[in-house]
Design a protein that fits this description.
- The chain has 5 helices and 7 strands.
- By secondary structure, it is α+β, with helices and mostly antiparallel strands.
- The strands form 2 sheets. A 5-stranded antiparallel beta sheet has the order 6-5-4-3-7. Strands 1-2 form a two-stranded antiparallel ribbon.
- Strand 1 and strand 2 form a beta hairpin.
- Helix 1 packs antiparallel against helix 2.
- The protein is flat, with a radius of gyration of 20 Å.
- The chain starts with a helix and ends with a strand.
């Protein structure tokens, strides 16, 4: 019963997170339009006067809303990760003891294709129920900031994308340093990236490169 309730709550949270990500990306798209102010661009001109080519109150409101959505996204993601651990523990408990007939259907809805159980993660609805499948690996980082016109944007990253694999980086210690080293060592070269976006696993290729902004990617990863 506990596992069933946790699964139902997790699916509800994932739906909420999907809605948040859609709204965040819509705001980013509007702010990043050609000639737009971007996510953090100045709202005053070179002489210090308010820009007359943008709706300053609207831009400020959208930036505030984006900050609120990012905070909500982080809270929901943390709760989802906690539920994943609960379900993972329940699945291990079921494996270590004989299954009662009443538990067989529940336990069979959690399918494992991973070689490392500690890296399992919930990814999607079962087509016929509120069941949850377990993916090959657990995301270790999330894109929580992304600059307009950056290599990350141009190569397909979106705010809220969760990183399953970045080049040779999958999990472990010193992840931020390893991600930075992976990008630097592949400057100008294609890096295969596997992400989870709104419950779907997607393969991308990103090319770290110099651009007008900071870094080689123009995005920030938050370690999960």
């Amino acid at each position: 019963m506990v596992a069933t309730n946790v699964k139902a709550e997790t699916m509800s949270l994932m739906d909420k997170r999907t809605a948040l990500e859609a709204e965040m990306n819509a705001i980013i798209s509007r702010l990043s339009q050609p000639g737009g102010p971007g996510l953090s661009g100045n709202l005053v001109d070179a002489e210090g006067f308010p820009r007359c080519d943008v709706d300053i109150p609207a831009v400020r409101a959208e930036r505030r809303r984006l900050a609120e959505l990012r905070n909500d996204h982080l809270v929901i993601t943390e709760k989802i990760n906690q539920n994943i651990q609960i379900l993972h523990s329940a699945r291990l408990g079921n494996r270590s003891s004989p299954l009662k007939n009443s538990d067989t259907q529940t336990s069979s809805t959690i399918n494992t294709v991973a070689s490392t159980p500690s890296q399992d993660v919930l990814v999607r609805h079962s087509p016929n129920s509120m069941d949850i499948d377990v993916l090959v690996s657990r995301p270790f980082a999330m894109v929580d900031e992304i600059a307009d016109a950056s290599p990350a944007v141009e190569d397909g990253f979106q705010l809220g994308d969760q990183i399953l694999k970045f080049g040779n980086v999958e999990a472990g210690d010193n992840l931020l340093q390893r991600l930075s080293s992976e990008a630097q060592s592949n400057l100008g070269g294609a890096v295969p990236v596997v992400i989870m976006r709104q419950g779907t696993v997607i393969n991308l290729t990103i090319t770290p490169r110099t651009w007008q902004g900071r870094g080689l990617l123009g995005c920030h990863f938050r370690i999960l």
